[in-house]
Write a structure and sequence with these properties.
about 120 residues, 3-stranded antiparallel β-sheet, alpha+beta
């Protein structure tokens, strides 16, 4: 027969071992969405103006009010953009560009929601 002290020690060791087993076998926490591809790509120089900007993530995302902002060489934001999720690819945010943009360097910033509800943002 086990003494009371020994029984408490046995229970504690068992609980610690069980906790370690749970932690060791637990999968990773739900990660936030991350950008895996952009078109045009970051730092690229294009010969012809693209018709759109496409941002592809590692999981489906939701569009926010500030989903995408494109600033032109004059320092002003490109007006009239209507970003949306590609109906054929829920992992991609797409925005059509106006037909005639001035030549120069453009900065793209984006903000979307991961499936877990956390905002994710970046720029290039």
């Amino acid at each position: 027969m086990m003494s009371g002290r020994r029984r408490v020690g046995y229970v504690l060791v068992t609980l610690v071992a069980a906790a370690c087993a749970i932690v060791a076998t637990a999968g990773p926490a739900v990660a936030h969405a991350s950008l895996v591809e952009a078109s045009p790509t970051q730092g690229s120089v294009v010969a012809d103006q693209p018709s759109s900007v496409r941002l592809t993530f590692n999981e489906p995302v939701e569009v926010t009010v500030q989903a995408i902002r494109i600033v032109g060489p004059d320092g002003k934001a490109v007006e009239g953009l209507s970003p949306g999720i590609d109906p054929h690819d829920g992992d991609s945010l797409v925005v059509a560009l106006p037909k005639s943009l001035p030549d120069g360097t453009y900065a793209v910033s984006w903000r979307v929601l991961s499936v877990d509800g956390h905002p994710v943002e970046g720029q290039f």
